Amino acid sequence: MSYHCLGCSETFGIEQLLYTCPACGEVLLLQDLEKNRLKGLSGETWRDILDYRRMLKIPALKGIYRFHEFIGPVIPLDAIVYLGEGHTPIVEANATLQEAAGMRFFYKNDGQNPSASFKDRGMASALSYIHYLVKSGRVENILAVCASTGDTSAAAALYASYLQPSVKSAVLLPHGKVTPQQLSQPLGSGASVFEIPGLFDDCMKVVEALSEKYNVALLNSKNAWRILGQESYSYEVAQDLEYEMKNKVVVVPIGNAGNITAVMAGFLKFFEAGIITDLPKIVGVQSEHANPVYSYYLEPDAKKRRFEPMTAKPSVAQAAMIGNPVSMPRVISLVNQYNQRAGKQMVFFTCVTEQEIMDCQLVANRNGHIACTHGGETLAGLIRARKEGLVHSDETAIIDSTAHALKFSGFQEMYFEDRMPAEYGITPKKELQNAPVFMRPEGLKEVPAPGAPLSGEAFREFVRQTADAIAEKLTLSLREK
């Protein structure tokens, strides 16, 4: 394997940690110098191998490295770090949601990863590579650093903690822009946590300065090993759909643009190896509050396109609140490759409002899902793409919920309590609001309390009156005798 520069096309060995090209400073992608060997087996044989591995009990092959030949084949199995990541389920939406979207679709619930987000896929790859370097004596006493809006820091701290004392971690967060649930995760994993003024983009610049000047391992999506691990998302989708990707649509949110890059790269690898015979449509979704990638592709003429970073506004989809995505050069390169291999345009971009994001998250979770705000963003993006004619009713979509709903429960609370800050531009809808009801019938003289339970007639009266009051509230009918 080698690093390949997207700017000057130079290649570099993987014996050292590289994040940008030493020659021109552009971002890197990892390339398999012997990828033609993958074509030595038929697509049918590969499918048999990958399906067989689902039954194995070897920890290193249970997670993303079930697809070892496609993700870091140079890393020996004894260096692979497996914490339970990958193999997250795809769950078909119920009839109500499918009617709202105008087509059949599934959620892929990546919130069921160990740190409760898709970032574990990339961290399993990045930290396995670092573990390989440590075990082979190439590096020692690693300090892994990252900038984050929450999920990256949680994953980085978790995986680094597994490799201590050889690896320690430090994370930089934008002050006041990370949910309490997300902040608690790197703290709980023992990372050094620094909050700085500004937004994610500001944190990223500080981390880049640290990686350029000091001996640290950068774990943001500038790290090409991160992108490599996130390709597993595509492989799992293909396998769960029996490798039949014709008339399929994969919808992903865009933050730092690493995930959409990885998704495209993964499907291309499977396509070139003959494992899948069709490339699915890819729809990238951004919020109006941070949409530089969407804005870039608004220009239909590729020769006239100019990427313009923007100042991101507050977004409930916090990981998407990035105005200058690091992986933009990767996106441009992979979109071109993907459309060329498909023989037509198969990558599309759409933009949604903050109102749509929040409403769609709540609607999804009222219909059996555990979608985060980014899962709301992808559902809103699917509905918008359907209206714009980018996708059609005879297609089937797989939409990404990147994290667990509990990570963003604070936004739900603000929505329910009608106290969303004005800068989000969200007005709660009464039909989506919910709140607990304290139930104590007025006629009750005694009620139970901690350390002071009721008994006898007093307890029976409490149960009777409370049950009747709840039944009245819910307009229940009496059982027929």
Describe this structure in words.
The longest helix is centred in the C-terminal third of the chain and has 18 residues. This protein has four domains: 31 residues, no CATH class; 274 residues, Rossmann fold; 104 residues, Rossmann fold (3-Layer(aba) Sandwich); 44 residues, no CATH class. It starts with a strand and ends in an 8-residue tail after the last helix. The chain is α/β, with parallel strands linked by helices and 481 residues long. 36% of the residues lie in helices and 14% in strands. Keywords: Amino-acid biosynthesis, Lyase, Pyridoxal phosphate, Threonine biosynthesis.
Order of helices and strands: EEEHEHEHEHEHEHEHHEHEHHEHHEHH
Helix content: 25-40%
Strand order of the largest sheet: 4-5-13-10-11-12
- Class derived from helix and strand content: alpha/beta
Low-pLDDT runs of 5+ residues are: none
Question: How much of the polypeptide forms β-strand, as a percent range?
Answer: 5-15%
Q: Helical stretch count?
A: 15
Distance between the termini: 75 Å
Mean pLDDT: 94
CATH topology of the largest domain: Rossmann fold
Counted beta strands: 13
General shape = globular
Q: Any idea what the radius of gyration is? A: 24 Å
Sheet with the most strands, sense and barrel status = 6 strands, mixed
CATH architecture of the largest domain: 3-Layer(aba) Sandwich
CATH C-level class of the largest domain: Alpha Beta
Structurally, the number of domains stands at 4
